[in-house]
Specification:
single chain, 257 residues, mainly alpha, Serine Threonine Protein Phosphatase 5, Tetratricopeptide repeat, 57% helix, globular
Length: 257
């Protein structure tokens, strides 16, 4: 199951291939950044603590400190999309998941700046992330991915909402829905989904890079730099993130053309 790891960054840094202008994106983003609570399907509603408090401590400061007493965002209506997964083949025999120690070793190889071992490590990490453990959930993921590739963001959000409802511990489902929500202009809920990804998997470098893109877009260069740098600390082999760091460092130094 293909992971939207690097193609997302190419999409959102293209000249807004989703036919939204920069001004529209920024206007809605600033509004959501300051006034909307993070979408939190697992009970983080009005009166609850901000979702960022559930994150690892070193990631909490990356997220907006939004008031917990505002109404939660409502996800776009999936438009009557069929989310039934009856008739899906039975789950295949389970594939043994990598142990924590094995994953730690893979991330150590990924962080090596030299050599080619990182390429295999990255592939193995992404393969582990792609395993939902359920054929039905994999089908929902593939449907959401196909709708996203077709530019049908509402359908993609519908499929992926069903996925996150039924598989709330599957970080890749939250990440793909964050992509769909962002491309649909739903900045606040997208940030909430990224927070959920990083709560489940703090080393999810694609989510950190995506967060950097979004923070940069709303003009929070300091937090964007932090997100990009944290992503590169985990996986230094991301050219787009490297370019973003250089761009923001030049901008914050006053040398940006």
């Amino acid at each position: 199951m293909r992971q939207p790891v690097f193609n997302f960054h190419n999409v959102v840094t293209a000249p807004l291939a989703v036919s939204l202008t920069i001004s529209l994106y920024c206007a809605s983003a600033f509004w959501a950044y300051g006034q909307e609570t993070l979408d939190a399907p697992q009970g983080n509603g009005p009166g609850d603590a901000p979702l960022s408090q559930d994150l690892p401590e070193d990631l909490q400061d990356l997220f907006p400190d939004l008031p917990p007493d505002l109404p939660s965002d409502q996800l776009p209506d999936p438009g009557g999309i069929e989310l039934d997964v009856t008739g899906v083949p039975a789950d295949p025999p389970g594939t043994p998941e990598s142990t924590d120690a094995e994953m730690d070793e893979l991330f150590a190889e990924l962080a090596e700046p030299e050599g080619d071992a990182w390429r295999r490590a990255q592939s193995d990490i992404e393969r582990n992330w792609s395993r939902s453990g359920s054929a039905a959930m994999d089908l929902l993921y593939k449907r959401g991915e196909a709708a996203l590739d077709a530019g049908d963001f509402t359908s993609a959000i519908g499929h992926l909402t069903a996925l996150t409802d039924h598989a709330p511990d599957f970080a890749s489902g939250w990440h793909l829905r964050a992509v769909a929500l962002y491309l649909d202009g739903e900045f606040g809920p997208s940030v909430g989904d990224l927070a959920r990804v990083l709560e489940l998997e703090p080393r999810h470098f694609p989510a950190l890079t995506q967060l950097g893109v979004m923070l940069e877009e709303v003009g929070d260069d300091e937090k964007a730099l932090t997100a990009y740098r944290e992503s590169l600390r985990i996986n230094p082999h991301q050219q787009d993130a490297e370019d973003a760091v250089r761009r923001l460092e030049a901008r914050t130094a006053g040398t940006d053309a």
